[in-house]
């Protein structure tokens, strides 16, 4: 699965913006929900968007190309992380799955993902 931990930290925020307006903040992801628009942004969050503190996440990309129709891969990964007390906010894109984990759990998550990959190979 070749996990790759990206530099920097990220936060999830919601804002009363259109998607076009949100583009000014250079989000790495946007999702429109009934309650509002969610942006995933590199930290720190601009004060114009939010003065509130937000949890910091590290983004880990599972560099293996995964199909949008794959069954069970992401569920297996997130279940194993949950068994170790690690919360994860996954985002599946066209080519890869991306895991947002609490920043203070990133090193532990990387070790676990490496061990999961080794377990899968044997």
What would you note in describing this structure?
- The chain has 122 residues and is of the alpha+beta class.
- The protein has one domain (3-121): VC0802-like (2-Layer Sandwich), CATH 3.30.2130.
- 25% of the residues lie in helices and 30% in strands.
- The strands form 2 sheets. The protein has a 4-stranded antiparallel β-sheet with strand order 1-5-7-6, with helices on one face. The protein has a 3-stranded antiparallel β-sheet with strand order 2-4-3, with no helix packed on it.
- Strand 6 (89-92) and strand 7 (97-102) form a beta hairpin.
- The relative contact order is 0.21.
- The model has no long low-confidence stretch (mean pLDDT 89).
Brief description of this entry?
With 122 residues, the chain is of the alpha+beta class.
What would the principal axes of the Cα set say about the shape?
A: globular
Derived from helix and strand composition plus strand pairing, the structural class reads: alpha+beta
Number of domains: 1
| The CATH H-level homologous superfamily | VC0802-like
- Rounded to the nearest angstrom, the distance between the terminal CA atoms is 14 Å
Largest sheet: 4 strands, antiparallel
Which regions contain 5 or more consecutive residues with pLDDT less than 50? none
- Let me know the average pLDDT: 89
Strand order of the largest sheet: 1-5-7-6
- The CATH level-2 architecture is identified as 2-Layer Sandwich
Q: How many alpha or pi helices?
A: 3
């Amino acid at each position: 699965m070749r996990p790759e931990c990206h530099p920097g930290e990220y936060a999830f925020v919601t804002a009363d913006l259109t998607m076009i307006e949100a583009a000014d903040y250079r989000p790495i992801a946007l999702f429109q929900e009934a309650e509002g628009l969610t942006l995933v942004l590199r930290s720190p969050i601009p004060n114009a968007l939010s003065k509130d503190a937000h949890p910091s996440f590290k983004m880990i990309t599972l560099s293996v190309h995964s199909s949008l129709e794959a069954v069970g891969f992401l569920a297996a990964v997130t279940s194993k992380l949950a068994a170790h007390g690690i919360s994860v906010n996954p985002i599946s894109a066209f080519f890869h799955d991306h895991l947002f984990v609490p920043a203070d759990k990133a090193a532990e998550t990387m070790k676990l993902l490496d061990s999961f990959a080794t377990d899968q190979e044997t």
